[in-house]
Write a structure and sequence with these properties.
Two copies of one chain form a homodimer. By secondary structure, chain A is α+β, with helices and mostly antiparallel strands. Chain A contains six helices and three strands; from the N terminus they run ααβααββαα. The first copy, chain A, binds a DNA duplex through helix 4.
DNA sequence: TTGACATATTCCTATATAGGAATATTATGG
DNA sequence: CCATAATATTCCTATATAGGAATATGTCAA
């Protein structure tokens, strides 16, 4: 099986740096024409259209017609799943190392077995 | 050009649901043998090894030898770039809609030109 | 209608999977 | 040295890109 489609979910969609760049441009919440995005990110227009299409399919942007232009607007709330997931690990970089260790050691204690922790012939890879 | 390698950065690595699942298992910070991860996620051992390999390459886990076992441990701090990026959009789902609109309108005011906002023949797509 | 502008779509290709199956590698105990 | 356990690696294949180039579609204005 190949890799999942970029349009499958937000995680796959935003894995592309260019698409994150586009989202950054739309980050202020104002709607923009494709041409404005093109100018902002300096990519060819077809590429921008394709990327916007992916972002649209996962619902992270919406589109509106305005004459011959199509105004894209960020739909930031659909990025929430990414935030929710990664927030789970927030403790690892928010200077609360003590709590992390403490929690880990607590679990270690709870786990009655595996007293084989004296095997200190560890080796970093 | 094909899609970027999954080992290119954390964004690509965690786009895979199975890999996020594995990270969730390691989420408590305790090190685990591959077999423990295998049992926890219910995937074939070779798949787990491959996924762990990807996670290792992007630095989001570390590995340590212990006899014939390899103990993997979460290196959560390497998920920070994802958090940092998505946090930029936090405003969109944290009940502060008023501020968002206000900010957008402020920028609208700052932007002197484009007084062509009376074109209200918009159409959802 | 016609031309110009804005955007989307189609074609093409090199590349990188993810999963399954089988096998290789490494370590341990006796 | 050998069987076994734990893990990694190799082979294979269907699939899905991302980007470039060219073109199609849609809209407006005169």
């Amino acid at each position: 099986m190949a890799r999942a489609a970029t349009t499958l979910d937000v995680f796959n969609a935003v894995a592309e740096p260019r698409r994150r760049e586009i989202l950054d441009v739309l980050g202020d919440g104002r709607e923009r024409a494709v041409s404005e995005v093109v100018e902002a990110v300096g990519m060819p227009q077809p590429s921008v259209s394709k990327h916007l299409s992916v972002l649209l399919k996962v619902g992270v942007v919406t589109v509106t017609r305005n004459g011959q232009m199509r105004m894209y607007r960020l739909n930031g709330s659909n990025l929430k799943p990414v935030h929710d997931w990664v927030k789970t690990f927030e403790q690892y970089w928010s200077h609360q190392i003590d709590r992390i260790k403490e929690r880990a050691e607590q679990k270690m204690r709870d786990h009655k077995k595996q007293a084989d922790n004296q095997a200190d012939n560890k080796e970093e890879v």
